[in-house]
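Write out the 3D structure for:
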Amino acid sequence: MTLSLKGAHILVTRPAAQAENLCRLIEGQGGAAIRFPTLEIVAAGPDPALLAQAAAGDWLIFTSTNAVDFAIKAFGGKMPALRKFKIAAVGQATAKALQQSGWSVDCVPATEFNSEGLLAEPLLQDVAGQTCTIVRGVGGREKLAESLRSRGAEVRYWEVYRRLQPVVNNGELLGYLARRQLDAVTITSIEALQNLLAMLDGDSVVLLRSILLVAMSERIGQAAEDFGFKQIAVSRQPTDAAILETLTTLLNGENSGRSN
């Protein structure tokens, strides 16, 4: 039997330019997607010196689809001629974004789509003496760089975008919370969750913490627990389809999440 969201109201917190696929999936299953972006993604400003360093290294390691988008724009949309670097992607969505732009991908995790999964790949085991450039947003986890350095690599960061807390009208969301009409919240990063809490007043935050929260990773789920959320589920994979699967399963009464 195909599960339906049966009119459930789902909060989607992705950046505005990246929310529509998940919103369409939710609406396709009979749900109502409430769009409330809690992150704005902007270019960090291309640095010609960093661009040249990245092109001259042994590895470009992309940590997100945003990293792909802004890096390719910095390269003028084209693969550098006679490139010697290999390309790694932290997950399938990132690899797909590269491939759609005509960039070949040499290394991507088979199953665990995060830094740990990428570090487990054979191609990144023996990197002693190699230069690895991690392409990412400003800030972020240090796990990948620390592990590659411990294997003897020279690691650089090329930070091609930054995340901002957007200025948006929260009136509609406050109304859904006050009327107890919000059925679930989707969160795809810890920063998005922090911003969401900062964009609401105290009473609304209390109401929000009692609503089902679907996180894209265990790290985000743990952060949500630390922030006081009572019903937390982690999607099977960090994809929109997996988030939808988790929503439809739980909102149809099958309990596979954690409760506090």
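The first strand starts at residue 9 and ends at 12.
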